[in-house]
TrEMBL record:
InterPro entries assigned: ADH-like_C (IPR013149), ADH-like_N (IPR013154), ADH_Zn_CS (IPR002328), ER (IPR020843), GroES-like_sf (IPR011032), NAD(P)-bd_dom_sf (IPR036291), SDH-like (IPR045306)
Stretches assigned to the Enoyl reductase (ER) domain: 25-363
Protein name: Dehydrogenase
Required co-factors: Zn(2+)
Coiled coil: none
Gene Ontology molecular function: any one: zinc ion binding
Gene3D superfamilies, sorted: Medium-chain alcohol dehydrogenases, catalytic domain (3.90.180.10), NAD(P)-binding Rossmann-like Domain (3.40.50.720)
Family: Belongs to the zinc-containing alcohol dehydrogenase family.
Source organism (scientific name): Lithospermum erythrorhizon
């Protein structure tokens, strides 16, 4: 079964030069050929047409690592993608050449207890595109399991298909938090994941959504995309108490569910403090490995449920439905587009890393 290849070198036959963006050092990406693995019976070969840049991609570029993942040898980057099927394995019955597909990047083992329980997103042996040592998808061609390639409805563009990867995080978070017309929602962090979480919460029926961030440009984008209210905060812990009051005032009611889409001590502490007794906080961001947070007061005294959100599962068909139905419009998230040359790859990552008004930077291959 194809799993995106690994950075130790994959044997296989190459019919054409397959160029890919290789992370070779800190702040250094090089376009070089990538040898594809042999097409397995349950795999498909995909010509990649759209790839979005994720914050983790930028983090890998800047530091050669994210959390427990360290880039120890050159690796192809990218995991948000969509493309066109060029070839199918002998046992594939769900797809044919020419189908446009969105690619779910995580490949679970399908054998462990977590997978058997249906929670394949927390499979300990999962192989994920652009998680070292597995190669990513910023390439002309990749090989991937057919079961993790979802045929796009005719009305969806390939760019929208690629955005279904980050959107899946927000959709899964809203499922985990049981978001509905009964829940008032706070989102800490107005980056791409915070924005898709807000869009998903609105589509799930949340009547009021307040977003907080340190960046005024991001908050302006959040307001334009549908946030009920926005609150500009700082990264200083001494401002927490005042900011919690501002957030509660902006909500105008109890905060039922908070999503921490940044993952810092300050953002998580704010979420735990602002959420009502008996409410829920979902941890989604990974800004810091270790947090110092007021867990005793929130969890032990006020029974605030703390929920983890790791990647997603069974989300792509729902993402398609939410977009095709008009409940979510992801097109405004795509603020910058680039081609696939060395110069444009460098410029695209520079643009994404700069923050500001850049939300989702997209490659068109």
């Amino acid at each position: 079964m194809g799993k995106g290849g690994n950075s130790s070198g994959v044997q296989g036959n190459v019919e054409e030069e397959n160029m890919a963006a290789w992370l070779v050092g800190v702040n250094t990406l090089l376009l070089k050929p990538l040898t594809l693995p042999q097409l397995g019976p349950n795999d498909v070969k995909i010509r990649i047409k759209a790839v979005g840049i994720c914050g983790t991609d930028v983090h890998f570029l800047k530091t050669m690592g994210v959390g427990a993942y360290a880039v120890k040898e050159p690796m192809v980057i990218g995991h948000e993608c969509a493309g066109i099927v060029e070839e199918v394995g002998s046992d594939v019955r769900t797809l044919v050449p020419g189908d446009r597909v969105a690619v779910e990047p995580g490949v679970p083992c399908w054998q462990c207890r977590r997978c058997i329980e249906g929670r394949y997103n927390i499979c300990p042996d999962s192989k994920n595109l652009a998680s070292p040592p597995i190669h990513g998808c910023l390439a002309n061609l990749i090989v991937h399991p057919a079961s993790l390639c979802f045929k796009l409805p005719d009305s969806l563009t390939l760019e929208e298909g690629a955005v279904c990867e980050p959107l899946s995080v927000g959709v899964y978070g809203c499922r985990r938090a049981n978001i509905g017309p009964h829940t008032k929602v706070l989102v800490m962090g107005a980056g791409p994941i915070g924005l898709v979480t807000m869009l998903a919460a609105r589509a799930f029926g949340a009547p009021r959504i307040v977003m907080a961030d340190v960046n005024a440009d991001r908050l302006a984008a959040a307001k334009k995309l549908g946030a009920t209210e926005v609150v500009l905060v700082t990264n200083k812990m001494e401002d927490l108490e005042t900011e919690v009051e501002l957030i509660k005032k902006a909500m105008g009611d109890d905060i039922d569910v908070s999503f921490d889409c940044a993952g810092f001590t300050k953002t998580m502490s704010t979420a735990l403090t602002a959420t009502r007794s008996g409410g829920r906080v979902c941890q989604m961001g990974m800004g810091e490995e270790v947090l110092s947070i007021p867990i005793t007061d929130a969890v032990a005294r006020r029974e605030v449920d703390l929920t983890g959100v790791y990647r997603y599962k069974h989300t792509y068909p729902l993402c398609f439905e939410l977009i095709t139905s008009g409940k979510i419009d992801v097109k405004p998230l795509i603020t910058h587009r680039f081609g696939f040359s060395q110069e444009q790859v460098d410029e695209a990552f520079k643009t994404s890393a700069s923050g500001g008004q850049a939300i989702k930077v997209m490659f068109n291959l």
